């Protein structure tokens, strides 16, 4: 007899437990929204037992829909690398890529009829609209690049891109510090794989919004687990911080010996 615990789902209001397939879809959606995410975090957010969530993750892994990503622990006293789950390319295709074949065919015909420049212009218009929507959100974060990147990640997350940031090089000299702007899902992944102009235009949009030169490290369209953009922050501190450092330096120079 199947129990709610075996199913990985709890019965609500006397209703029958969810089917295996429906429960597995919930786990897949949770990996999409939270990934990279651990099995324990998934179980807590979905209300599943550890054994149940691992069973569903194992099944999704065998279907090629999720993959394990090993992430090095950061900070002082970091332990062994942590295992986190992310959607595979096949999983990305299964979720949120409806009608992309039609769109790809349409853009191919557009390029054949008018030229590649028409596709470039279309991509530029699409991300121009995104930039106009995101700019007030990013500018409200102030001049600090890290804060702006976090605001941009939040806007991307709200639009279904599963955006988040990671600090890099916290122990390195200030000039070498950076953050990575990550996107765990790309609704146009298949389209971007065929037309790289979309990724290029998105990168340019991020650079304009953040006010610094950024660099794309990986993309879902190119086979990466996430879209990752390198954002240098160490050399771009806010004027207030720079003024404070200068004032401290002057005070030290003027201090009597």
UniProtKB/TrEMBL annotation:
It comes from the Bacteria. Residues 7-24, 240-257 have a biased composition (Basic and acidic residues). Residues 1-24, 235-257 are annotated as: Disordered. PANTHER family: HTH-TYPE TRANSCRIPTIONAL REGULATOR SRLR-RELATED (PTHR30363), TRANSCRIPTIONAL REGULATORY PROTEIN-RELATED (PTHR30363:SF28). The lineage of its organism: Bacteria, Bacillati, Actinomycetota, Actinomycetes, Micrococcales. This is Transcriptional regulator.
């Amino acid at each position: 007899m199947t129990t709610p615990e075996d199913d990985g789902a709890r019965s609500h209001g006397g209703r029958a437990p969810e089917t295996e397939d429906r429960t597995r879809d919930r786990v897949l959606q949770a990996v999409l929204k939270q990934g990279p995410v651990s099995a324990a975090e998934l179980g807590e957010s979905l209300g599943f037992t550890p054994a149940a969530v691992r069973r569903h993750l194992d099944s999704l892994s065998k279907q090629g829909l999720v993959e394990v990503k090993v992430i090095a622990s950061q900070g002082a006293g970091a332990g062994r690398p942590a295992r986190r789950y992310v959607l595979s390319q096949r999983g990305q295709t299964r979720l949120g890529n409806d009608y992309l074949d039609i769109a790809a065919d349409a853009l191919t015909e557009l390029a054949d009829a008018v030229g590649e420049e028409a596709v470039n212009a279309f991509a530029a218009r699409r991300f121009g609209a995104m930039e106009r929507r995101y700019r007030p959100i990013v500018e409200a974060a102030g001049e600090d690049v890290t804060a702006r990147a976090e605001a941009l990640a939040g806007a991307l997350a709200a639009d279904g891109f599963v955006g988040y940031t990671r600090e890099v090089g916290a122990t390195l000299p200030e000039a070498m510090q950076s953050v990575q702007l990550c996107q765990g899902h790309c609704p146009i992944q298949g389209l971007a794989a065929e037309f790289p102009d979309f990724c290029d235009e998105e990168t340019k949009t991020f650079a304009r919004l953040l006010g610094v030169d950024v660099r794309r490290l990986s993309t879902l369209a190119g086979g990466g687990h996430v879209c990752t953009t390198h954002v240098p922050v160490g050399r771009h501190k806010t004027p207030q911080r720079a003024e404070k450092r200068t004032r401290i330096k002057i005070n030290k120079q003027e201090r009597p010996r």
